[in-house]
Amino acid sequence: MSWPGSNWLGPVRTATGGVLRHKVQAVAIGLVVLVSTASATLGFTLLAASNAPFQHAFGAQDGAHVTVTVNAARASAADLAATRHLGGVTAAAGPFSESVVQTQFQGQPFGQFTLAGRGSPTGPVDDIVLNAGHWPHGPGQVVLDGSPGGGGPGLGSTLTVTGVPGTPALTVVGFGNSVTSTADGWVTPGEITRLQAPGAPQSAQMLYRFTHAASYGEVRADVAEVSRALPPGTVTGAASWLAAENQATGNGAIMEPFVVAFALIGLVMAVLIVGNVVSGAVVAGYQRIGVLKSIGLTPAQVVVAYLSRVGWPALVGCLAGVVAGNVLAIPVLNNSAGAYGVGSQQVPWWASVVAPAGMFALVLLAGFGPALRAGRLSAAEAIAAGRAPRAGRGYAAHRLASRLRLPRPAGLGLAAPFARPARTAVTLAAIAFGATAVIFAFGLNSSLSRAAASQTHSATIPVRVEQFGQGGPGGGPGQMPSAAQDAAVTAALRAQPGTLHEVALYGNGVRVPGIAGNVFARAFGGDAAWTGYGIIAGRWYSYVPGGVDVNTAFLDQSGLAVGDTATVNTGTAQVTVRIAGEVFEPSSQPRILGSTRTLPGIATPANLEEFDVALRPGVSAGGYVQAVNRTLGGRNPWQATSQHDGGQFYSIASGLVGLLALMVAIAAGLGVLNTVLMTTRDRVHDLGVFKALGMRPGQVLTMVVCWIAVPAVVGAAIAAPAAVALNTATVHAMAGTAHTGIPASFTQVFPPSRLALLSLAAVAIAVAGALLPASWAARARPAVALHAE
Amino acid sequence: MQQSAVIRLDGVTKTYQTGAPPALADLSLDVATGEVAAVMGPSGSGKSTLLNLIAGLDRPTAGTITVAGRRIDNLSESGLARFRARHVGIIFQFFNLLDDLTVQDNVLLPAQLAGASRRTARARAGDLLERMGIERHRDDYPARLSGGQRQRVAIARALVNSPDLLLADEPTGALDTATGLAIGRLLQELNADGQTLVLVTHDPALAERYAARTVRLLDGRLEPARVPA
Fold first, then answer.
1. Which ipTM score applies to this complex?
2. How far is B158 from chain A, CA to nearest CA, in Å?
3. ∠A304-A307-A308 over CA atoms, to 5°?
4. Domain boundaries along the sequence of chain B
């Protein structure tokens, strides 16, 4: 093969002419590459985002290894400033004055907030990333930790601080994220004084980064060093970054398996579709290649010409795709940052380089083989190869189709794919991948919904009565309720006609031989089978005398199994219990559930955590909560709530699953569009003949859509079991990262009727992809089609 | 006896590109039922354009076209397709058979597209294949047939819906002389049975031998009839 040397411009110009003459194919290549590049960029970004997000955010935001709370009255500013120079301290920020306040939102208790006075969100330690709004620049303004939405305060909402003279109001002007949650909100430094309860000690926070803070031991040593450097009694508390890391890792790692699954589906499908599109485009140009060769183009110039022909639209698609991928990544990363509990996440620079470069390389690689073959063919062979599929292929299918009692256009369409088996196989793969993604997305969504319902108990326990003492609902007792107040709750719940079930829930640490450290035990003061804990194995404890249920971490750490007995030391008693079942309670910490009779000593007033309530059908949770709270009165620390914590991850994951499935389905649809387009070009003369013989536009549409019917049906047959298997594997992988087993019901989300219905996704993708070229074919004038070869 | 016109063109103009000379200019023409009309002219004279317009494969830029008593220049694409299926049979120079269908399936296709019953269509196709002398090739694929046999299949396909009008575009152009003569005789027999035929050809001998009337086109216009010297 002779290389053309300096004469490159001619072939490129020739190719550009080809691009302009084949606008639809160029647009198809560009679109497929665009979606594939965007999908790959997003996939790489999500993989990067799920890779140690806390650690990355901690580094990027200069997270505080330790947040030390000090009594500001005991140490001078100079004393505190001097701690910056202690050995091992690499950076310090503060002192930031601090106040712990009680709040109300929309007239209801909204919990306790630790507010810090900071003039700026940035500094040497603990950069706070603003998710919305602006930093407070005057009195009466607050930035809350977290993100807006979720039924809580939004931008512009007002929180009322109670227990402070004048009950000052704070307008929410922003939402921010401290990677280690050094405070629940931030105000201007001067504001803290106004928010201080009369007689409350003045406190402040110092934020430190240390050389050595990788373990609890090192952190304790660091805190001790700071304490020693300050007057005795100055340090009143310290929070370690390791606790925040533990919590964030538990939330974040669970997302990794499905992100990986979707990223892999997207990448494999992008490779398949781009390969099909590009090689098809080159093969479709064979006839023109023959003509060009006959007028003197060298083989190398042919290769250059045709790589350029697919290269230009692919280049445009790559560039547009990387932009689209970055744009799409913004809301996705905002969500994932929320789920991972980090301030912000960005598209890594390498994703914006690797995705388009890789896709472009793939395009050139896919085009190189056919272009090389075209270069080596003689002019006559190229013209012949470009005209029609190899003779003899698909004849048997047509013979069979003609015997079927189907409308003739449908029979002709059904048999057509057998003339181009390789192209059909790739199209089938694209449809199968697309349908797998869609079915998988629906399945995963159902699995996640079941997991969310089981974890948050939102359906079974619509109302809880909790102590609004520290940090809002579930924050634990600030001022312990009196026995009368406890009894008032039980009376109020029983008096409500909407109450279906109510049960008191106690919690405390217990010791179990074989497990290091405390096991968190929860004991129900009555029947609790209705609370809806997901059973992974065994039964609910009440069906087994002396029975308890435990979570997966308990079994893993104790080496025990369902049916075994265990000795539990509750502090006041030592009892032998039987493990009745394994419940879905995702945590790396061992947990045990039982009745107050089986776990004696736990049901003390100090351990009373909450009352769980189930409502009668048709009873509004909101109305019920208001009624109960009216009965309890504002001074009772027990307050009813219908809010459920812990569901945020699931809603974010569901949104992400939907977006990823949509992208994969669009790419699959474009793959089908391209195949049908190429087949239409191949068979344009036949289409002209059909029309000349009286085939109506509607019949042409039917025939062309039927071209992809066989791949669609086979694709559906492959996609359905593949999606079920993928869903099962992914949910198990997600559960594994969350240190829990899962009830079988979480993966049994595909009853046959639903699976059959979802399998229609393959048909929907195929029809959606085929409809546009089919309508073009239907509209084409027969005289034009007959002479278009 | 005054026979009715099966084709009537009135002031038909066809222009493919704005500003370009028309392929057909203000053409008016009648073809009577049962007539064989030959359309002749050099390349680019507008013969194929005329055939496409009569067959409803294309639309005129101006003028009206009436075929088999129905005005077709204002029909929708579906209407035109129905018209072609019921009223027109087309024979192409290069046969335009569908390579992946058997001979019988090729012949059956227009009847199936027109909605004929399976039994009726098969019976009609069987008769035509027998009449064309290719009945034993019914299960063969076109690639295995000679040129003459393929053209016979194409004629059978064109006749399967018993059209009012048979349009033949250079029907012997791709055949050797002997086969061409045989196909010519076959068309003559069809006309003898009452089939109206419009024959587009370069071949003056074919036109002279089989057509009662020859229409000559030059640059999209009818040439005046030649008066013998």
1. 0.90
2. 8
3. 80
4. 32-47+76-222
